[in-house]
Each structure stands twice: as C-alpha cells, then as structure tokens.
Amino acid sequence: MSSVYYEDYTPDWTLETLGRTITTWDILQFVTTTGMNEQLFLNEEYILNETPFKKRIAPGALMFSYAEGLVIQTGMLHDVGMAFLSSDVNIQRPLEEGDTISVTVTLTAKRETSKPDRGLVTTENRVLNQHGQVVMVYHPQRMIKKRVSG
Questions:
Q1: What is the CATH number of the domain that holds 82?
Q2: Would you state the pLDDT for residue 1?
C-alpha cells in the first residue's frame, strides 16, 4: 500500500493489516526489555496455578505496540505520518501466546488544522485474534500530511 494522505481519507475508508502470531519469545523479550518483570508474564508455575488463564498472556502494552507495528507495515503512514497525538485504549480480552492478531482500521473523524499542509485524522483500530474476536480497540489521532497545501 502507498502512503495515505489527509485527502485520501473518505467517510468509508478502511484498511485490514496482515496477521502476526504472538510467541512466547515475543512476550519474554518485550517484558524483559521494558522491565515488566511480573510473575504473570514470566513464572510458568504462577501462570498455571494462580491465574485464570492457565497460559502465558501478553501485556496490553505489547498488544498495542504490535498492533501499531502492523499498521505501520501497511505503508499507509510512510512519509505522511507527522505525529501520533493521542489515543484511548480498551482491552477486551487477553492476548495469549500463540494467538495471531490483525488490525482493522476505520476512519472515524478528520479535521483541518490551522496549518495548510496537514490535518488531523482519527481512526478506530480494532485488534482481532485468529477467531475474529476483538482483543483491543483504540482510537489514535494522528497528524497527517496533505498532498497539497491550502
């Protein structure tokens, strides 16, 4: 996919990313790199005996980060994404090791700014697992370049 400029976002604009399977290695690398050294992510005996999941789960921060990576890999933000300004994040269900996620991105709002070379775009990003279940929903607002100024 090529870059999606501000003008390219129409009321019915939507995008689907490729999928990505979350492995044990992904979770362990993420939690140790970020310092999220919690039994919930690292201790298999604790996971099996003390959690309702009975399986290693991914932190919400990993889910969000990997979802954003899938969006960026589409190319839609290449050379046009100027800033990630804000987002809410709502986790709907746990993401377990072995789950495969993809993201459905849908335009929810766009508006002009005081600068003629850019606009603000808000999307709803629905992170789905391999069963089509929503695991996370977030609404990023981004500053996006315009194709033409004015």
A1: 3.10.129.10
A2: 80
